[in-house]
From TrEMBL:
Protein name (record): Glutamate or tyrosine decarboxylase
Matching SUPFAM superfamilies: PLP-dependent transferases (SSF53383)
Gene Ontology MF terms: carboxy-lyase activity; pyridoxal phosphate binding
Keyword Lyase among UniProt keywords: yes
Family per similarity comment: Belongs to the group II decarboxylase family.
N6-(pyridoxal phosphate)lysine PTM positions: K293
Keyword match Lyase: yes
Any GO BP: amino acid metabolic process
Organism the protein comes from: Parapedobacter composti
GO CC terms, sorted: cytoplasm
Alphabetical keyword list: Decarboxylase, Lyase, Pyridoxal phosphate
């Protein structure tokens, strides 16, 4: 068996070289290709029937198949003109860090297993905490994404404020713009929907803090226990930032854990020019922050930061007999004592490599480019007739719709949906729709450091052409 593995290893090494060559070419040609490459049912059927062979196949053939038949399809979230959802413009630095981390495959669940990797991850967490304004007792962990970061923080919140006797009374507060992962996480940790209050947002899609206070007081009067408020720094729809200082003051007054979902927007803390927008974030008890969004990391890299590291240790430290040798003092906290996972890769190393390569100033500029891109998109829209800016450019996101006066709301809805669909089919850019306070709108989220001014202006021009083309067709 080991001889067979050895033969395979040699072939794998050859395949790595061939793959690297193909990947480089793929990246070089990327801008000329579609932002979305759809797959048809026939191709899906073929994939389904591929099965697992009894005897191993030639590695090079398998590698080619992966590149041509699998990786080639879907939305290319790292394409410079992919403006949908939150794009994933992974940098090559992150890619390198990711490959190296996988290649060495260090067990980063405990300090004893991977001391140097754990040290680098913790030092980077420390630096990120400092950016948030957290002090020396803070800490955190690299996790797989914003959903996991949110849930990890909410577990800590639950365990700090509630116990087994009071769990059934705990209430959490979100806004109508909170990300679905927050509600999902709350339900997973034992907070059912009827104890999650959705606070309305104002005209700028920010949580209304007066309504928050009212909701908390009503719950207290009913004998319930408000335990967590989840504010958002950079909502997915509009990039809005909830009034963090006001929410923090309310949380302090009532002894409620404040969590900030900064999966998207926390990266603005690294922009010298715009970090002031997140004023007050350091007052939160915990923060979620995705590396694989606006820090240009490959997927599977996010952070949960807490003001007091002991809040994570309280919830996650366990020591069964076979792990007793891995005990360490809390200054060298084991990653496994700070979150859900035991065995885990050192997810933070790719971000460390990226920051080493770019420097904090390079990162700052790369983030700021997104603000400029969305501003250019808005500027181009304002030059054209009948485009309504539903939410102006903020944190690299702008929401808008084609809304001429002669169309009804239903017709506008249909027209904007058709515009998006045609743009996606065309493949020039990925522009999707969302809904804001009842309106169907188009949305551009532009955070790719390689996107140019003409990329965004041309995208708007093409959207406008579709609007003119379909206008008469939707009018009833
Ligand atoms: C504000 C916000 N929170 C949480 C998430 C979930 O993050 P992830 O997809 O990394 O789990 C997202 C994803 O878009 C988000 O925009």
């Amino acid at each position: 068996m080991s001889i067979k593995m050895h033969e395979l290893d040699q072939k794998v090494e050859e395949a790595i070289e061939a793959f690297t060559f193909r990947f480089r070419a793929d990246k070089r040609d990327r801008n000329a290709r579609s932002a979305v490459n759809e797959i048809d049912e026939h191709q899906i059927e073929q994939l389904k029937h591929r099965g697992i062979p009894n005897k191993g196949r030639a590695i090079q053939d398998i590698v080619n198949e992966l590149v041509d038949d699998i990786f080639a399809y879907g939305v290319r979230t790292d394409h410079p003109r992919f403006f949908g959802f939150i794009p994933g413009p992974a940098s090559r630095l992150s890619w390198l860090g990711d490959i190296m981390t996988s290649a060495y495959n260090i067990h980063a669940g405990s300090w004893a297993n991977g001391p140097a990797a754990s040290c680098i991850e913790q030092e980077l967490i420390h630096w990120l905490c400092q950016q948030a304004g957290y002090g020396d007792s803070s800490g955190g962990l690299f996790v797989s994404g914003g959903s996991m970061a949110n849930m990890t923080a909410l577990i800590a919140a639950r365990d700090k404020v509630l116990d087994e006797r009071t769990l059934h009374l705990g209430v959490a507060y979100v806004s109508d713009q909170s990300h679905s992962s927050v509600m999902k996480g709350l339900r997973i940790i034992g907070i059912p929907s009827h104890r999650i209050r959705t606070v309305a947002t104002d005209t700028s899609f920010r949580m209304d803090s007066l309504l928050l206070r009212t909701a908390i007081e009503q719950d207290l009067a009913a004998g319930l226990i408000p335990f967590a408020v989840i504010a958002t720094a950079g909502t997915t729809n509009t990039g809005s930032i909830d009034p963090l200082r006001q929410i923090a003051a309310i949380c302090q007054e009532y002894g409620i854990w404040m969590h900030v979902d900064g999966a998207y927007g926390a990266s603005v803390m690294l922009s010298l020019k715009y970090r002031h927008l997140l004023d007050g974030i350091g007052q939160a008890d915990s923060i979620s922050w995705d590396g694989h969004k606006w820090l240009f990391q490959t997927y599977g890299c996010a952070m949960v930061l807490v003001k007091d590291k002991m809040d994570l240790i309280r919830s996650f430290h366990v020591r069964p007999e076979y792990l007793k040798d891995l005990e360490s003092d809390h200054s060298h906290a084991n990653a496994m004592d700070l979150g859900v996972e035991l065995t885990r890769p050192a997810r933070g190393l790719r971000l460390w490599l990226t920051l080493q390569g770019l420097g904090s100033l390079g990162m700052s500029e790369a983030i700021e480019h997104g603000f400029q891109l969305a501003a250019w998109a808005e500027d181009e829209l304002r030059k054209k007739k009948y485009w309504e800016i539903v939410s102006p450019a903020q944190l690299a996101i702008v929401n808008f719709r084609y809304a001429p006066a002669d169309l009804s709301e239903d017709e506008r809805h249909e027209l904007n949906q058709r515009i998006s669909k045609s743009m996606i089919e065309n493949g020039y850019a990925g522009v999707f729709t969302t809904e804001l306070h009842g309106k169907k709108v188009l949305r551009i989220c532009a955070i790719h450091p390689e996107t140019t001014e003409s990329d965004v202006r041309n995208t708007v021009r093409i959207l406008n052409q579709y609007a003119l083309e379909f206008h008469d067709a939707v009018k009833r």
